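Renewal narrative, Specific Aim 1. Our central claim is that a sequence can be written position by position from structural information alone. The example that follows is taken directly from our test logs and has not been curated for this report. It begins with the structure tokens describing the chain, in the order in which they were read.
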């Protein structure tokens, strides 16, 4: 099939490259000329494992092209995916749909034959109706159908997720479009990934419901972690104890510094706004949003407490700036809020991240970036693990404790064992695993 993908960011580029890898002919377009110039030169503007070779191989095979000429790409396509951003609108938290609507108008003007326009961006329920109206407004003669096909890939595992999805949700009410969508996803369907056809509005809502549920699950275990700290229990054991019940499931039960990233914060907020607009507030998610917002600054207070109640004039080493490992995405990362809160408390911040320092530098002031974990920890009064990159999982703790001014390690991802850290001379704190609670856990581990 001939496919155009409008918006070549994390989702557009991964989707485009994977569709090309399935054998389709794909044109990825974007308004950002520097992004397209880089892609044409074989440079990948984002960090996503495996994406580089997938893009280069498919471009070389002639199945994947890059351009800023949206009209031409759309005119030659049977299917057009909209994969532009839908950030939070400044001020009110609704999804900012201006990029989607601009893309819809441009696509509308360029349609030449029957075209299936597929919204892959995460958009509030009812957006497909407006996309359809806009296309008809700019091109009353256009022969087209608007479909919702939300994307569930995770940054850091995007290609695997795209090629082996748990399900492919397709919202439509048009038979011709249904045949086209089946053709687009045929390789995945043959691979046993279920294609789940629903109405367009239902598909739009499924995406938000999924993200809101996951955000709520994380928030639940984070609050449990706080309770564990108050009652000397171990949150990792609680998570395992409930996660083994397969009605609950063990995923998304790692207590940490609060969820972040380019999706959960904005999508939970947008869902809350949509629900209120429709007179059907979702109190659970409103509470989830509020708890998570507070949690990030609470993590800074945890660091301050670990430093004896003040960080004024102290150097704090931050390990990890991205909202999770294996991405360079720092949008709404807890690390950003934690750093700002520590700076508010008078701390001097040194930070290291394998991929996120460049984007973080645009969001932060007065941060000294280092070359590795030890470089930033040297002379620091505390080291704080914010993102669980693999290279932070196997630090030489004995070395770390000797190079710091004060051997304080705050592990916001629970990747170390208290006894190990203490044995190597560190003063250790983590999430939901107070000193007393670790004993039972460790006794078992030692058996
Ligand atoms: N990043 C994720 O992990 C993820 C996962 C699932 C769904 N989503 C959703 O997918 C959508 C895209 O997210 P992203 O992270 O890829 O965003 P992104 O910011 O990385 O990329 C968006 C791209 O669209 C381009 N663009 C904007 N307006 C355009 C227009 N009119 N024509 C052409 N290009 C245009 C921008 O220049 C940018 O390159 C969002 O709705 C997001 O919520 C993201």
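The sequence written for that structure reads:
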């Amino acid at each position: 099939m001939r496919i155009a993908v409008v918006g070549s960011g994390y989702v557009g580029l991964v989707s485009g490259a994977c569709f090309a890898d399935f054998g389709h002919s794909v044109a990825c377009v974007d308004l950002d000329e520097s992004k397209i110039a880089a892609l044409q030169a074989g440079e990948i503007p984002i960090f996503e494992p495996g994406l580089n070779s997938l893009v280069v191989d498919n471009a070389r095979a002639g199945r994947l092209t890059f351009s800023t000429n949206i009209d031409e790409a759309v005119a030659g396509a049977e299917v057009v995916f909209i994969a532009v951003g839908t950030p939070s609108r400044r001020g009110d938290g609704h999804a900012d749909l201006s990029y989607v609507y601009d893309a819809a108008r441009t696509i509308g003007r360029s349609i030449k034959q029957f075209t299936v326009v597929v919204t892959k961006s995460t958009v509030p329920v009812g957006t497909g109706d407006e996309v359809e109206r806009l296309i008809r407004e700019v091109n009353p003669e256009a022969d087209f159908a608007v479909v919702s096909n939300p994307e569930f890939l995770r940054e850091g595992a995007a290609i695997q997720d795209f090629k082996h999805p748990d399900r492919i949700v397709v919202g439509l009410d048009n038979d011709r479009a249904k045949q086209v969508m089946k053709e687009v996803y045929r390789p995945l369907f043959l691979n046993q990934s279920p294609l789940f056809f629903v109405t367009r509005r239902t598909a739009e809502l499924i995406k938000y419901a999924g993200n809101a549920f996951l955000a709520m699950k994380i928030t639940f275990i984070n609050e449990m972690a706080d309770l564990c700290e108050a009652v000397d229990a171990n949150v990792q054991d609680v998570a395992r104890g409930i996660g083994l019940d397969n009605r609950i499931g063990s995923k998304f039960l790692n207590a940490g510094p609060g969820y972040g990233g380019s999706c959960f914060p904005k999508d939970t907020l947008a869902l809350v706004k949509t629900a209120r607009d429709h007179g059907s507030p979702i109190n659970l998610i409103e509470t989830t949003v509020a708890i998570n917002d507070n949690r990030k600054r609470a993590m800074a207070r945890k660091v301050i407490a670990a430093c004896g109640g003040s960080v004024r004039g102290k150097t704090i080493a931050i390990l990890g700036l991205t909202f999770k490992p294996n991405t360079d995405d720092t949008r709404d990362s807890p690390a950003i809020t934690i750093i700002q809160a520590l700076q508010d408390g008078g701390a001097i911040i040194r930070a290291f991240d394998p991929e996120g320092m460049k984007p973080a530098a645009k969001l932060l002031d007065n941060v000294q970036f280092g070359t590795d974990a030890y470089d930033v920890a040297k002379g620091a009064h505390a080291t704080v693990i914010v993102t669980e990159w693999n290279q932070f999982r196997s630090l030489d703790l004995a070395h770390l404790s000797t190079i710091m001014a004060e051997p304080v390690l705050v592990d916001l991802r629970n990747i170390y064992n208290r006894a190990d850290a203490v044995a190597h001379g560190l003063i250790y704190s983590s999430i939901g695993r107070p000193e007393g609670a670790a004993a039972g856990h460790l006794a078992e581990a030692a058996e």
